[in-house]
Amino acid sequence: MSTPVEYQRRGSVGVITVNNPPVNALSTAVRQGIADGLARAAADPDARAAVIIGAGRTFIAGADIREFGKPLQPPDLNEVIRHIEQSTKPVVAALHGTALGGGFEVALGCHYRCAVPTAQLGFPEVKLGLLPGAGGTQRLPRVVGVEAALRMITSGDPIPAAQAKALGLVDEIVQGELLDGAVAFAERLAAEGKPLRKISEMQDKVGDVAPALFDEFRKGLGKSARGFEAPQRCADAVQAAATLPFAEGLKRERELFAGLMQGTQSKAQIHIFFSEREVTKIPDVPKETPVKPIGSAAVLGAGTMGGGIAMNFANAGIPVRVLEMSQEALDRGLAVVRKNYAATVEKGRLSQADMDRRMSLIGGTLSYGDIGSADIVVEAVFEEMAVKKQVFGILEKAARPDAILATNTSTLDIDEIASATSRPGQVIGTHFFSPANVMRLLEIVRGARTSKETIATAMDLARKIRKVGVLVGNCDGFVGNRMLHGYIREAEFLLAEGALPQQVDRVIYDFGLPMGPFTMGDLAGLDVGWRIRKGKAATRPTHLRYSPIGDRICEMGRFGQKTGAGWYRYEKGSRAPIPDPEIEALILRTAKEQGIERRQISDDEILKRCMYPLINEGARILEEGKALRASDIDVIYIYGYGFPVYRGGPMFYADTVGLGAVYDTICGFHKVHGEFWQPAPLLERLAREGKRFRDL
Ligand code: 3HC
Ligand code: NAI
What we know:
By secondary structure, the protein is an alpha/beta fold. The strands form three sheets. An eight-stranded mixed sheet has the order 12-11-10-13-14-15-16-17, with helices on both faces.
């Protein structure tokens, strides 16, 4: 096997090349290789300087995450970086691609840095629930100052080379061949006898920082950091840079890093990092499966979902035609799209020129004759089987013979929809989440006859339109919404038993979701579910418990935020839910009517009653093969439902609680509350075997 780090001399410069595809992660062998390369450069009488560069598509993209959790093998990265900095010959980092995490730390250990204009530099550790653990929190503020360092380290977002140059992180931007430029730069350094710049010895940016700055920063971390531990520890580590000598700051950083590494949050976040990549791998649809190019699209229906779906295509530069039944509906739909873009421009997140470009890619039509050339048609018309089948029947003639025919249905049977065409192989579900232009999740629903090429194309399209595509099976509610049924059901049952909407919502919010079930219902609108429940009322099993409170609220004309009242009431123009005594009275009345003696319900019970149905149903879904992996379910919940990343998704969360404990609790609920709590056989088996969903 070739070694992952090579040493060669170019002129008077020793070149240390890291070659560990795909991203040159700092595995044990790479760390050792860099140390060896440095030793060779030091011993090489003809080398006056050294350059560290990455082979392939990138500089070093960080520590090797796969080694985390295993015993650390020497050499320690901090040691390697110390060697670099203490080299008596100048060492230059040559950056391209992404210099991230430990890779960026290696670069900061070098005396100087060159970069191509497309290079990106950053510390993404916080996104893995960690902090830069090889001097990054101590060296970065010494170059860019404490405030800029806090922002970079707690956001995890990389910066482009030009910005890095402006901040003093990059000394030279190389326009041509990177290695040539870096070698020339290193030769110049050596020839001029420029002093070696050791960042660890720079003190002026960290010497005199008011402690209040850190308190203010922590307070201002905001909603996106709520519940996360790492951003706070990142701030602690940067504060150490401003208050301790370098060596002690490094020690403090190490302790903070180790603390995070041992915690559950980093394990959960690393689980999601790998799960997101795993989700693209479909055992019976190999990587080589042909993918149809999608150069144009059509969307049927310009309602709540159709408009947002069309925006996704336009955002990716794909022209899209939106078809409606009437000019009025079309105008209304496209006006909403325009309003959404304009709001983004207003916030300064999109330029007017970009908005105009995107709007120009979205055309409207009332005629199927205008969608005959689209590579994909996404249907987002009313949620009624007869309407869907009628539309797919028309597509049979109107769409190109090889076009993908996708449906955005949220509850209907994909196979029955596909039966309206003679090309079921090209029919697939693309279940977007509302608002479709914002939510990252795309459930890709495989019908019984969906072809592999159609699946591969839909997965590829998800990536192109910047969605996280997860392949799921055809069943009622697919994966995400199917699991949600039990969550909503229990939340409502808890009301009659003694809780109030605000208590349930607070428990779920404190657990880390953006909002609880009742606030969510008010936001989404309560009338949709009501209509569905009324449709199913005649066939509802009478022996099962049913909560009528949701229906009664709708009968009162309270459909949620849009009518100013739902589970809560709302002041005019405000989205803030206000607990409503009228609802409390309704709950008390209903409990009495149902003969339920209300009791004090603990937060712990609320959490379990709401979360464990997700886990139990998730286990059934896995057993039925409707999701490929437990980790796919976790990805669905993170991107579609705002489940806190630091808990790793519902299935990972179950693993952290312990499946034995989850199973026992579910059995307890089964005894008290009956049939709805029948434990899933897979959960029972794993619990008995002492296994986790991750072990499947
Ligand atoms: N360690 C191990 N494997 C890694 C890795 C890493 N740091 N980074 C990426 N990989 C793997 C991926 O899992 C994937 O494997 P697969 O092909 O088997 O699924 C493969 O490399 C390619 O990755 P992507 O599909 O993500 O490739 P992209 O080109 O889309 O993105 C990237 C490249 C921007 C580098 C992206 O992979 C990324 O963000 N990686 C993580 C970077 C990171 O978080 N670095 C910090 C690590 S922690 C650290 O350094 C601690 C230090 O401070 C001590
Ligand atoms: P909507 O009622 O807001 O929009 C539907 C649009 O389709 C209307 O503008 C209507 O005029 C148009 N339409 C109806 N029949 C048509 C036909 N034959 N040809 C062309 N246009 C026609 O509905 P919404 O909410 O956008 O839902 C659309 C689909 O998306 C449904 O299948 C729904 O289940 C699904 N969905 C909805 C979500 C939501 O949160 N609203 C989430 C995920 C999926």
